[in-house]
Amino acid sequence: MKFESLHDLFVDELKDIYNAENQLVKALPKMVKASTSDELRSAFENHLEETKQQVERLEQIFKELEKSPKGKSCKAMKGLLEEGKHAIEADGDEAVCDAALIAAAQKVEHYEIASYGTLRTYARLLGLDEAARLLQETLNEEGNADKKLNEVAERINLQAQQPESDNEEAESTRDQSEQMTDDKDELIVRR
Ligand code: FE
Ligand code: ZN
Ligand code: FE
Ligand code: FE
Questions:
Q1: Separation of 1 CA from ligand 1 center, angstroms?
Q2: ∠ CA(91), CA(104), CA(143), 5° rounding?
Q3: 139 close to 120: Cβ distance less than 8 angstroms
Q4: What's the CA-to-centroid distance between 20 and ligand 2, angstroms?
Q5: DSSP assignments along 51-115, one per residue
Q6: Which domains does the chain have, with CATH numbers?
Q7: How far, in Å, is the centroid of ligand 1 from the Cα of 17?
Q8: d(CA 42, CA 39)
Q9: Which residues contact 46 (CB under 8 A, 6 or more apart)?
Q10: 76 CA distance to ligand 3 centroid (A)?
Q11: Which ligand is in closest contact with the Cα of 17?
């Protein structure tokens, strides 16, 4: 890539985030399915709809610039989503798995916030006012998505911190005899 002007860099970075957003349109439905908390699921569903709008905003900018949106593959987003795949495929404690999904999603949002902040600033410097406005709109959505995930995490991390048995204290007392039987079975297996 040869950067002769800030405009060249602007277009190159736009292509990068365009590809990243399209990767997210494919990944977010998997995050929705993997969530066990209703609150988290609806946060992802909501951000999926926003993400589709963000793709359209970028297409609008490319149209005005008379440039193709294609031609770049965002390796950073590919890597973030590869890591996120571990959270999607994880099983075990539901709250801990949800906490892992939130952690992965916030890394994605922060990447997007960095990208859109830069792009918005370039657009302003280049006098591309409409592009700057559209990029600011998306930047605000990414910021709000991150804040929403913080709110959900406040509850889910607390649940994740408790062992699953603690969440069902009443039940565990009632089932103590059963548990003892289980322990004995385990001893037999070990021998
Ligand atoms: Fe986005
Ligand atoms: Zn990238
Ligand atoms: Fe890193
Ligand atoms: Fe986002």
A1: 25
A2: 140
A3: yes
A4: 6
A5: HHHHHHHHHHHHHHHT--S-S---HHHHHHHHHHHHHHH--S-HHHHHHHHHHHHHHHHHHHHHH
A6: 6-165 (1.20.1260.10)
A7: 8
A8: 5
A9: 148
A10: 9
A11: 2
Neighbours of ion ligand 4 (CB under 5 A): 112, 142, 145
Of all ligands present, the nearest one to the C-alpha of 144 is 4
Nearest to 114 by CA among 4, 8, 13: 13
- Residue 110 CA: which ligand is closest? 4
pLDDT at 163: 75
- Model-level pTM greater than 0.70? yes
pLDDT band at 168 (very low <50, low <70, confident <90, very high): low
| Residues 125-151 pLDDT 10s | 999 999 999 999 999 999 999 999 999
Please say if the pLDDT value at position 5 is more than 90.
Answer: yes
Query: What is the Å distance from ligand 1's center to 138 Cα?
Result: 7
Ligand 4 centroid–CA 152 distance in Å is 16
Tell me which amino acid residue 19 is: N
For 33-76, the pLDDT digits (tens) are 999 999 999 999 999 999 999 999 999 999 999 999 998 999 99
Longest dimension (CA), the chain: 77
| Ligand at shortest distance from the CA of 80 | 3
Residues 6+ apart with CB under 8 A from 129: 123
